[in-house]
Amino acid sequence: MNFLKSGIKTVLGAPEPGQQPSVAETVERLVERASNSTLLEDRRDACRALKALSRKYRLEVGAQGLDTLRQILELDRADNETINYALDTLNNVVSPSQFEDEEDKPHIPMNIGDQFTEMFIKDPHNIQLILDLLDEYDFRVRLSAVQFLISLLTNRTKDIQEIILDKPMGVSKMMDLLGDTREVIRNETLLLLIKLTKGNANIQKIVAFENAFDRLFEIVSSEGYSDGGIIVEDCLLLMLNLLKNNSSNINFFKEGSYIQKMLPMFNIPEESEEIGWSPQKVSNLHCMLQLVRTLVSPSNSAQIISNCQKIMKNVGLLDAMCNILMASGVPADILTETINSVGEVVRGEGSNQEFIGNVIAPSYPPRPAIIVLLMSMVNEKQPFPLRCAVLYCFQCYLSHNEMSQANLVQTLLPSSSDVALLMLLSQWMSHCPAAVSAFLQVPGGVGYLVNQTSSNEHDDNECLLQGLSAFLLAICINFNDDSVASYTRDSLKQLLLKRVGMELFCAKLGEVSRHELYNKAAKHPQLRVASPKEVLIDYEFCRLFKSLESVLGHSLAERRANGAEADEAELEQYKALIRQQDARLHELVHQLDALAGQARELQSTLNDSLAANSLLKDENTLLKAQVSANSIPIQPKPTQPDPKLVQYEERMLQLNGEVFRLNEEVTRLNGEVDRLNGELKTAKDAEKNSAEELEKLKKDQDDLLYLLANYDSKTNEYKMRLLQLGEPVEDDEPAEEDNPT
Amino acid sequence: MAYAYLFKYIIIGDTGVGKSCLLLQFTDKRFQPVHDLTIGVEFGARMITIDGKQIKLQIWDTAGQEAFRSITRSYYRGAAGALLVYDITRRETFNHLTTWLEDARQHSNSNMVIMLIGNKSDLESRREVKKEEGEAFAREHGLVFMETSAKTAANVEEAFINTAKEIYEKIQEGVFDINNEANGIKIGPQHSTAGAGGAGGAGAGGAPPGGCC
Ligand SMILES: Nc1nc2c(ncn2[C@@H]2O[C@H](COP(=O)(O)OP(=O)(O)OP(=O)(O)O)[C@@H](O)[C@H]2O)c(=O)[nH]1
Ligand SMILES: [Mg+2]
Predict the structure, then answer these.
(1) Domain coordinates in residue numbering, chain B
(2) Class of domain A401-559 as given by CATH
(3) Which cellular components does GO assign to this protein (chain B) (predicted)?
(4) Class in CATH terms, A566-619+644-724
(5) CB contact under 8 A, B70 and A257
(6) Contact A278, A235 (CB under 8 A)
(7) What residue ranges do the domains of chain A occupy?
(8) Which residues contact B77 (CB under 8 A, 6 or more apart)?
(9) Which chain B residues are closer than 8 Å to A209 by Cβ?
């Protein structure tokens, strides 16, 4: 740091005594000097100082210096050292990664490099400046220019790709650097090209046109193929970029005989077991396998796939990959990926399928490699990805190829002790009509199963074998899509009835779950056996068997009774019925809800009415009391009309009015009660409780009516008495005329 | 498959003149009546025989659309031969030849053999450019000239093979530096010795069926 300070001092001259300039000020003065000084030495020193500051203060240097640095690249091309400083400074400013010096500066935005990149490429001519610098042979300049481009590409891949594509010879220039004899430049160029080609088909094609594959294979070979260092991996990664989803380049690769050149990559020396595999070798081989898979990827056009597959077999690549499968000491993930690759190299290609069908594993006794692979798939001790890979490979081996299907079953069937293979077949075929159909087409397949099922040997393993054969046959019937004319469900069933008989068949099916090994295996997902001989049945199979046993037995029994066609029609009927009933059920539930709501409403109306009724009762009582209180003094004075009588008359009229009002109220309530009665009647069925309430209501209502009637008669009585007393009593009639109901 | 030499070609010219059709006719012996606009660049290859030698042609069919012009320019440098195509039924494609030629001369190596092709000769009734005009232009600029039809295949084989012959002669004369792959020429892996097994015998005039590897 002291050195740096003194460096800056010599560039800027001594600072004013007593005050230290801020970083921003320092940068400003350096930039000013780099841009305006007439002396090259000054500009060079300023650039050197800026470079030194740019790791810790890239914000300041970038914000103030970007334009000046760009200008230096243009104007000071003659001085490599200055150019080099300027390039390095720019590279630091746009660097996608954080510098150690910056760690204590949280205020620097995370994407600062990205922002400066955006500023720098705003003028596409700036990229041209860098491309021009690639022509400079000077080691430092060339290297810095490449590194700067890598940083820019990392930040803004798409933008830079488009700019470079727009520059004539832009890509070609970078390709030229691959031939640089200085390894550092060459290696850095590889990284640049990997970034440059990512996801851009046009650039990929130009790079391929510029003999990239030749260059890359030269490097791979000079570095010792799979034993080479990370450079080999980089070369392969670049090739992968060039080929992935680029049919034009794949075509070029295949036409240019580059598939042949991949072969030495797969030569695994005999003594590899002792030496072991370095992590780099694993990576290299992994990339190479990816390359193989990219060429024959199922997403490519059928013609490309088939062409590449043929070439791979003809030039010995398939053979070499099979050798890796058979070699000892191969790491599991390489093995897995090799199996996947072999699968895709043979997929749908008859002669390649035949080829791997004939590969013999170096086991004792020798067995077909495909069988050894299959055994490893059902072996739970193998890593799961490996078992999946085998399954995939196996599918590829069988895909579009009756020959290999037949071969497979033929190789499987005679070895009756390989119960595991029947187990495998049942796992493969259950729930898969296509697989069933494939199996049914295999000559001799069904015959073998029927013979086994009807066999009468009583050896322990034979019983299991017979049971499994029955199980497989049941699967063939249950998951049969009737696509194989000679073995439709019905004809298979007929065959079974004739050759085995349903009872015996079901008995044989039962043999499986009664077997001692089955019961052992069903208990533990992990194999717990003393010797491989006992590994006949695994846990997964037990689960499958359990899930299918009853279904199969049942379906067979039903089929026996009704035949498949009838079954299905009947099933449809039942389904329709169930659907109907379901709909009806829904409807009823809805109705019930509505009725319950209605009942609740009625209940509350009823409550209101009851309250009103009791209020009226009270009023009635009060009136009665009043009436009786008034009537007592009337009796002792039956003589001449006196002023008191006028009073009475008035009072009487008042009471009459009151009575009239009550009458009306009662009529209204009667109407209300009638209405409630009606409503209650409709709700009665759904809501029995409300019926009881209604009963209560009725009773109350009767009481009330009784009371009112009572009152009515009393009023009449009063009227009569008044009449007897000689008082004219006006009738209710006129009032009633005023209120027609 | 073993070859004595490998030549890289490019096909250039305005959009719609029939570049892709010429390539397809040459590699697959098919004609494509619908204009399937080329995006960027497409690749094709075929083996021919010249002077008893197997010669592999790798052909890059470029896009004529203006938008792809800078991409096209990236292919000049590494090509040994170029087919410069115009459409005899559209004069403007002929008028643009000078621009194409300038571009080619500027970006290619000086020894690149350029074959001028007036395509769609089957459309005589709609002809806008006389054959003599094409001949004159070729003479003036030192090009080989031919009228072709990608539809009837007339002269298509000849166009590609004559270009190869021209390059081959230049090699014999020592004009090309065959060790510099940037010239678009490669020497085969087993120079001059006939390839061992495999399909595709060497027929005189060289026309193994397309799609052969
Ligand atoms: N009659 C006739 N039509 C042709 C001939 N060659 C091409 N065509 C038609 O011309 C149209 C354009 O052909 P392309 O080969 O796709 O043109 P291109 O030069 O590749 O065009 P770009 O890819 O856009 O540069 C298509 O409709 C072809 O069928 C020919 O010799 N005769
Ligand atoms: Mg085209």
Answers:
(1) 5-187
(2) mainly alpha
(3) Golgi apparatus
(4) mainly alpha
(5) no
(6) no
(7) 202-396, 401-559, 566-619+644-724
(8) A169, A172, B107, B108, B109, B182
(9) 8, 41, 60, 74-75, 78
Query: Which residues make up the environment of ion ligand 2, defined by Cβ < 5 Å?
Result: B 19-20, 38
- How many of the other CB atoms lie within 10 Å of CB of A578? 10
Q: Are A662 and A616 in contact (CB under 8 A)?
A: yes
pLDDT band, residue A18 (cuts 50/70/90): low
More confident: A538 or B3: B3
CATH number of A202-396: 1.25.10.10
Determine contact, residues B16/B117, Cβ cutoff 8 Å.
Answer: no
Predicted confidence (pLDDT) per residue in B5-51, tens digit: 999 999 999 999 999 999 999 999 999 888 889 989 999 999 999 99
CATH architecture, range B5-187: 3-Layer(aba) Sandwich (3.40)
Could you tell me the pLDDT band of residue A174, with boundaries at 50, 70 and 90?
A: very high
Which of A161, A176, A205, A259 is the best substitution to test chain B (most B C-beta atoms within 10 A)? A205
- Do B41 and B119 form a contact (C-beta atoms < 8 A)? no
Please determine, for residue A271, whether its predicted confidence score (pLDDT) is greater than 90: no
Residue nearest to atom 8 of ligand 1 (CA): B18
3-state helix, strand, coil in chain B (%, to 5): 30, 25, 45
How many A×B Cβ pairs under 8 Å?
65
Neighbours of B140 (CB within 10 A): 8
Q: Does the Cβ of B19 fall within 6 Å of ligand 1?
A: yes
Selection from A162, A160, A196, A164 nearest residue A178 by Cα: A196
| B44 Cβ inside 6 Å of ligand 1 | no
| Confidence (pLDDT) at A725 | 79
Name the token pair of A207: 């790079």
According to DSSP, residue A22 is labeled P
Quickly list H helices, chain B.
19-28, 69-73, 91-95, 97-107, 131-141, 156-172
pLDDT mean across residues, chain B: 88
Q: Where are the beta strands (DSSP E) in A317-379?
A: 360-361, 367-368
Cβ-Cβ contacts under 8 Å, B44 against chain A: 251
Residues of chain B found within 8 Å of residue A254, distances taken between Cβ atoms: 213
Q: List b or e across A436-453, with b for residues whose CB sees 16 or more CB atoms inside 10 angstroms.
A: bbbbbbbeebbebbbebb
- Minimal C-alpha gap between A202 and chain B (Å): 6
B198 C-alpha to ligand 1 centroid (Å): 34
Say whether B75 and A206 touch across the interface (CB within 8 A).
Answer: yes
Q: What is the pLDDT of residue A701?
A: 73
Test mutation, A161, A178, A203, A209, chain B, max B CBs within 10 A: A209
Query: What is the position in ligand 1's atom list of the atom closest to the CA of B120?
Result: 31
Q: What is the pLDDT averaged over residues A447-474? A: 82
The pLDDT of residue B75: 94
The predicted-structure confidence for B124-153, as pLDDT tens digits, reads as follows 999 999 999 999 999 999 999 999 999 999
Helix and strand numbers (H, E) in chain B are 6, 7
Task: Tell me the pLDDT band of A273, cut-offs 50, 70 and 90.
Answer: low
Q: How far apart are CA A212 and CA A207, in angstroms?
A: 6
> Bridge-partner residues for B119, per DSSP?
B87
Q: C-alpha angle A689/A694/A698, rounded to 5°?
A: 155
B4 lines ligand 1 (CB under 6 A): no
In this model, does residue A117 exceed pLDDT 90? Answer: yes
